[in-house]
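Two proteins were folded this term; both appear here.
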Amino acid sequence: MDQEIRTSQALHTYGPGAIADFPELSVIVLSHDIPQSRNKIANGPYWGEDSEKPANKLEDNRLSLAFNVECFVSPPNSDSANNAGIQTTRFPTVLQCPISGELYDVRELEKDKSNYTDKSSREERTVDETFTGFSSPSFKGRNFIPVRFVIATEDGHLDNFPFDWYVHTKNKKPEEVGKGNRLFLKTKGSTASLKNIVLESRKQNGNFVCSITLERIFDQEDTFVDLKDARNDYLQFVDGKMPKPWRGRSGKTKDFYMYQIDDVKWPPYSESTSQEEKNTILKRYPRTLQRGAGNLYFPIIYKGISIPKQGYKPDVPEDFAAVIQKQIKALETAGFLQNEDTKGEDFIKQYRNILHSNIDLGYSLDEGVKMLELIFNQDKETQGHYTISQLREQEFNCFLNSNIIVDRKEWYDSKIIDGSNYNFGRSGLVKKVVLLNKIRELKIFRGFTRIKPLMFEDLIFDNKEGLSGRKKKESFRIQDPRFDNNTRTLPATEVKGEGIFIQFDDDELSRWEKTLAVSERFGIIANNYANYRLAFELEDDEILSPRYLALHTFSHLLINELSIECGYGSSSLSEIIYCSGLNSEKKMNGILIYTSSSDSEGTLGGLVEKGDSVILNSVVEKALSKARWCSSDPLCIEDKNGKGFMGVNLAACHSCSLLPETSCFNMNKFLDRGLVVGTIENPDQGLFIK
């Protein structure tokens, strides 16, 4: 049977690598570029659609260059002409009989057609399309259920919990591992605690072998590490390899593809090893998680605004840069350009002699050579790529450009209004307001992490050259959604809607930031953030500033009020904060609020209408008035220690400032009402106070 999900769920909730729970069924979503065998066409890179004319192709040269891909692909629709779909395979593959508690493995059951509830279409299905239930051989009419527990590493590996290995090694019977004993999960007592769940091993004839409770399975060291006997150390047992199930199963063995875990040795550490070093080593080992645990899957999604080509001026046109990147990769694959020191010179020679005549983009030979020199003279960290700050700067400049000529294929329409018509409390604070009647957002799925979210947003771009230290280690935690390394597409969704952009005056912000009360209040959050980054060996973050906190919090307050005024739900509105770093030469001070829902709710209209000076002044006044008193005050406003993740929020809670996390630009971090409307002790320190 097929299951239908919303388009946005295909990235946020059920993206490649995520476990999806359905009634009596648990599956893992496969990589989008695994060919869909039910189609007789070349469809790998385009999520099952025809490569010649993919119906789900999303194009944006600027963002494609940033992610080093040719284009993006949206999840296939249920009415796909090529019968394309989101592929899955059962995971965990260990199933449990709800009556007897006996454990079975899908890979063994799949060999017997009689185990399928739906036998009629079995011949047309592959092992990776197992949306059918398995019936219990012992109890007619009852289907197996997936087990609750899985294991995962910080490097993305994911596997079934090793019940067979666990029950036998912990009972000092390693010789029984892999002997085909029947395993049972039984509950004793009156509670469902792990202490009352017993894993039992029996011979095929029913003779008892051993048993153990599951009360210790969430203790990583006790479960998976052994310093005395290598047979009881899990990474030694699996020979340092674990699967990544979203990349599918082998056509021959039907097992998941195995991937090496780096630097596996035994014993992993000694009793004298420092706790810091031990923690580093333990990151390689798996840990037990619930199948539906929140820390099993952190999708990495970049929200990019598609802007007209005339709205910004790149040093190197995207069409030229994209073709050159493709040619560089082809030459490197063929064994050329191996010398990094002469790579630029060697490629320019190839361009002069051969490539220029083959690449017809309308540029002369001299123009092409000059652009190549610009590409190869950049730092290795940004060579041929954009950074997040560059992308945001281009969008910021585009919004303020009144001379844009928009191509009929580009979804963009703007109207710039002078800020003197707007009064947001402080005089002269608003510089410009831009009403965006048409705006296109691409939500790009770059991959995911497990156990912990990604620490550095810039790492989403496919360029690891020049990275060192903690950033380099962190980059390897990103799990690529693609099965084939040569695939040059990434999953994405497209949202066409409307928005309001507000630019704030830099001089007014600077004067406000220099006041003592603001500096002291900001110092609480800055110190908490610095301590966190120091503890995890992270580099300093120059983006954080009092103005960033104030603009971010104001954006939340405004979204909450706009959702009431214009009828959109707050989850259907999103924000982007344009705020440059402390040492940046080009100053950005603005917020963008726009519709971000891909279904009918995102096209209701009415948001731009609220951008009129009279209406928006009224909306802002109401938002600020409500922000002066929260239903959780005085506890909320009087917080002096910091709250939330990393302690980087002060006066912010679900009653006043927090948004659905899909709407927030920074996962509800860096918020403080006190910097917007002041506090009880110091009401004049707010940015938006007259």
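Next, the second protein.
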Amino acid sequence: MGLRPTRILLIEDRESDYFLTRRMLSTIEGQAFDLEWASSYGAGLQAIHRAAHEVCLLDCKIDDSDGLELLRESQESGCKAPVIILTGMGDYRLDLEAMEMGAADFLVKDQLTATLLERSIRYAIAQARTLEELRRQQDEIRVSELRFRSVVQSASDAIVQTDENARIVFWNKAAEVIFGYREEEVLGFPLELLMPEWRRPDLRLGFERFRTGGKSQLVGKTIELEGLRKDGSDFPLELSLASWTTSEGTSFTAIIRDITERKRGDEMRCAKETAEKANRTTSSFVAIVSHELRTPLHAIIGFTNILLQNGSLDTRDLDFLERILRNAENQLRLIDSVLDLGKVEVGMDVELAFVSLETIVNEVVKQFEGGRRNPDVQIVLCVSPSMPVVLTDPAKLKQVLINLIDNALKFTERGSVTVNVVTSSVDSTPVRIDVIDTGPGIPAARLEEIFEPFPRLETEVTPVGAGSGLGLSISRNLCRLLGYRLQVRSRPGRGSTFSILMPASVRTVPSTAERAGPVQGERDCKRG
């Protein structure tokens, strides 16, 4: 296989010099050359624009024109092939000018030999390749630097670079946002500008230790410090400081993160954990105390019932015993309510099951029909027998209904307490449960207050021993636990309606809410 020839362009207006150059190239051993001759300025310029050559030999004078002008045009056109200037006589000034314009070499014709020409061509090509590689590396460095700056400028953390004296030489946009300084305001200033006064001696000492011994508590670690903004406000920050060394010296890169929100979150989490611990402690204390109180109350209730069965007691004694029994039972209910409230606040498990809502409501109402209550108040139950089963915690839903019905009966002197299960007309799934009374009603300003623990509304008709005021608070919390909402509508003198709203997401048919069909009114009502 033959040698690949080196492509050479000769721009020379004298044919004799062309033959001389071709003869020299043919005598060079171990190499092959492909020589193209351009005998005029214009032909030479066209050949240069084709960029089909590896090296160009250019006569300093051609067609009475300046060969250096052609060199300038070749450089401006982006020609990458090296250019060797040929001249009839040596001229240091011309040589220097040609080299400054980008010529690879400057050869005098009458001193030219084949060996000198071969070496000049070889060096020129090697130099061109080196320069091309250097340009490529510079382009890569430039692209890498632009990419680095793009990443740094888009970072959410402040990135600050300093020299070996800890003076700021670079400042990204996040640093501007965090500290409030523009880059031109901080360049050349020490990094300690970003720290409170009392922190600055430690920072200076850390940099000094690194410069003198190569070790520091700051460099190579991530630490939490206090930062100082331009407006004088301080804030918590996280600082990661790294060092790197070049021929120009040691530099430092600081990555700074504003951890104000993280600290606030930590404080809130600690406060929450402290509050939860206090709640658990309080609930545990209440449970222990309540247990200790229930034991003697059960004894009082038991012995009082035994005494009430004694037929030899007169009316006065029976009245005293009934008062004792009534107060003991009230105290027992209060203790049970306190225990329930403690359980809800700490957190209760929900035991879901598919159950019949009709069955639950009937069972609750029967409990009140069997007990002692005001004969002037009727319990009315309106429930559809065709309702599908619902997914809920039956015990907790019963407790809510018991609290609402019991509350309504206590505050209603005459009339009725109605339990109405409202269903969708589309598929009969329950939409809400209303407990409606004909009691004294509640002022509008106090409708939300009644759901707080121990609100005890004082009205003209408030019954003696009406309760502790915990029932509604417990009921609303239980409804939230089940995914329901407990609301109240009331007008003074017209009674109150407490409604358990059952969203579609906790009912049996998810699409019911999306259809949002009309609801059925009261039906199948029973009076007790």
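Residues 265-347 form a domain with the Helix Hairpins fold (CATH 1.10.287.130). Residues 82 and 126 are 9 Å apart (CA to CA). These notes refer to the second protein only.
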